[in-house]
Amino acid sequence: MPDILSNLDALQREITNSDFDAVIAMSPENVPYTSGVLLWTQRFIRDRLALVVWPKDGEPTFITATNEEGYVREKTWIQDVRGYVQHRSSPIQVLAEVLREKGLSAGRIGIEPGYLSAEHYSELTSTLPEAQFLSCESLFSKVRMIKTPAELEVLTRGAVATEHALMATYSTVNTGESERNLVARLGGNILQSGAELPAFLYLTVGSNTGHAHPDPTPLQVSEGDLIKTDCGGYFSGYYSDIGRTAVVGKASPEQRSIYDRLMEVHRATIAAMQPGTPASGVFEVAAQGYRDVDIPFNLAFAGHGVGLYIHEAPMLAADDHTVLQPNMFFAVETRVRWPGQQGFHIEDMIVIRDQGPEVVTTFMDTDQLMVL
Amino acid sequence: MPDILSNLDALQREITNSDFDAVIAMSPENVPYTSGVLLWTQRFIRDRLALVVWPKDGEPTFITATNEEGYVREKTWIQDVRGYVQHRSSPIQVLAEVLREKGLSAGRIGIEPGYLSAEHYSELTSTLPEAQFLSCESLFSKVRMIKTPAELEVLTRGAVATEHALMATYSTVNTGESERNLVARLGGNILQSGAELPAFLYLTVGSNTGHAHPDPTPLQVSEGDLIKTDCGGYFSGYYSDIGRTAVVGKASPEQRSIYDRLMEVHRATIAAMQPGTPASGVFEVAAQGYRDVDIPFNLAFAGHGVGLYIHEAPMLAADDHTVLQPNMFFAVETRVRWPGQQGFHIEDMIVIRDQGPEVVTTFMDTDQLMVL
Q1: Which of A195, A349, B149, B175 minimizes the number of CB atoms within 10 Å of its CB?
Q2: Rg of chain B taking only CA atoms, in angstroms
């Protein structure tokens, strides 16, 4: 991440207006959001904690494993960087020391209890028994869910690049080719399209389309097979997430009928995404849409906010009443699956504008079931 | 994961001989290890818990989000599978119900406090106030660190395939090519070599080699530049992890000298990996090796066990006194970095045999600094 894409002023305002004496960014999302440094290893080496301590008054501190310290110092705008040697000293002890230095050992400290492990939490509370630790997750998500122009640029670039990568893959499908081979080509295309890394590559063929997130298999493409993809990559650390379903050779009337009905639901869901509508209201429109076209729907959400985390606020789900606002960025996914038989998945990325929802992923047309 | 690669008999024995009434697999490693089902989404959708409850007596239960339920039912050997709808019901409540059914609501329950979030832990302890929750992480890691023949086959295949992918990338480097482009090609090659997904692609050029895990940049390859790579993929869900350093055109005497001295340390570290030696003893040999050849060393470990997690027991670190045994599988990494200037990294994968360490990654010779 070369520059600060995030809205640090809004974050500072939220902290100033909160009851917290300090908030601590802990997750692989909030650490880059606050510091401008994307630490890749945070995403798969869980025990290598990175922490940004952001006091209500005064300067923030970045705590990192020494392996990453040189990189952090080069990339972050934060002046006070402290290293700890993994397997020799504990990041929680460094954190406690920093909080004591800032006079906050009995303060109200915002943490991320949905991310921090029970083990580290227990070490933290026993090291600073007089502090009060409370969740500051909603503070972060409130700021993060309104994307900055720079974030929208990165998210849009990633979404469109992923569409191009998927189109390049679908355009070159051959019967007899294995699912595994198609997945490999898709991943390569996502990398060539500018991602730092593919994030997920759920491309399935034939009866495997009935599953959401299976392993790639040696199953070969046959005439008449559905090919269903839900894929994404990391672009400057931000996720892309798109889905497209196609058929090889010729679509059956049943395949066309399911697809067309699903597209009705998809269009209705997107049309409901007006500024001022609660996320749960969009979910209800989607749920009603499935009922109207007689497609079973027992899934938990109709889409989700996307950014540095794959599912971020707001969730288009029954329990999320967040009101949609301009500059929110979503993946809207309309899908049906019969495990072991077949499945369909249409997923677009959408930015909320003052005047309504704008579909970003228009390169691969979804109006009709694509025939390869 | 088509078959059970793991050692369920050994796991059952450990549970039988333990004080636990049940252990609960929670992490993206222990869930596939116990169930035979790799849930990819566990690795990046943290809030979508999957749990395997394994009682000392009786049959295990698999708790999964309904999104994954069909796949789980098709793949696992576990008969009792329970689904929960995310954003509507809590997996912790389902877990509590299962423990009550099994008569264990006041039992001694093994959990993974290094993985379970503070939030879920708090929900669990308040829902079942009479149960005792204790870490069973060492029970799992004791079993997992001795690889089965099937696991060794997968790990070896992944290691060698990753080496081939890196060789294919290094073999086609052109001056003027960007770091970003090389990273994309490496990822594509890892996919083509049979990985489900690349896991990490730290390929750096020139002054960027001074960092461990940076973002790929537009920096172009010039004559005389070092190229340093630390990369890996997922193969049947297991990690590969290798590292190689090369130079473009012609090596300077200083580059050769650093590389040759590093290789001395690398050879000495590997030679120390005899069955019966403690992991900390291998670390000491490495640390002494760096001192002997006058290369700075302030890193936390000289290598690590590898399997379903990237850093698993034993760690070749000062605080890990686990004794090396046959069928352990390691990544041994010997490296030095001067941030903003240059760095070198040599990493091999090694299996411990009765008669000593066996290097698995012999395709790309490390004896001398490779010239591209």
Answers
A1: B149
A2: 22
Same domain, A140 and A216: no
- The residue range of the domain holding B81 is 8-144
Best mutation site among A30, A49, A67 for testing chain B: the one with the most B CBs within 10 Å? Answer: A67
ipTM computed for the complex: 0.93
Average pLDDT across chain B, whole number: 96
CATH code of A333's domain = 3.90.230.10
Distance CA A285, CA A40 (A): 38
Which of A5, A30, A44 is the mutation pick for testing B, counting most B CBs within 10 A? A44
Q: Are residues B106 and B246 in the same domain?
A: no
DSSP B231-275: EEEEETTEE--EEEEEESS---HHHHHHHHHHHHHHHHHHHT--T
Q: Is residue A2 part of a domain?
A: no
In chain B, which among 238-297 make CB contacts under 8 A with chain A?
A: none
- Inform me whether the C-beta atom of residue A315 falls under 8 Å from chain B C-beta atoms: yes
- What pLDDT shows up at residue B1? 43
Q: Are residues B198 and A198, on separate chains, in Cβ contact within 8 Å?
A: yes
Per-residue pLDDT of chain B (372 residues; tens, 9 = 90+): 446 899 999 999 999 999 999 999 999 999 999 999 999 889 889 889 999 999 999 999 999 999 899 899 999 999 999 999 988 889 999 999 999 999 999 999 999 999 999 999 999 999 999 999 999 999 999 999 999 999 999 999 999 999 999 999 999 999 999 999 999 999 999 999 999 999 999 999 999 999 988 889 999 999 999 999 999 999 999 999 999 999 999 999 999 999 999 999 999 999 999 999 999 999 999 999 999 999 999 889 999 999 999 999 999 999 999 999 999 999 999 999 998 899 999 999 999 999 999 999 999 999 999 999
Take residue A88 and report the two structure tokens written for it. 């020799």
Instruction: Give the closest-approach CA distance of A245 to chain B in angstroms.
Output: 18
pTM of the model: 0.94
Residue pair A122/B122 in contact (Cβ under 8 Å)? The answer is no
**Closest B-chain CA to A236:** B215
Phi-psi region of A219 (alpha: psi -120 to 50; beta: other; left: phi over 0): beta
Q: Where are the beta strands (DSSP E) in A124-248?
A: 132-135, 197-205, 226-235, 238-239, 242-247
Q: Which two tokens stand for residue B206?
A: 């020139």
The tokens 């409850």 sit on which residue? B53
**pLDDT tens-digit series, residues A229-275:** 999 999 999 999 999 999 999 999 999 999 999 999 999 999 999 99
Q: What is the layout of strands, in order, in the sheet containing B22-25?
A: B80-84, B61-65, B51-55, B22-25, B108-111, B132-135
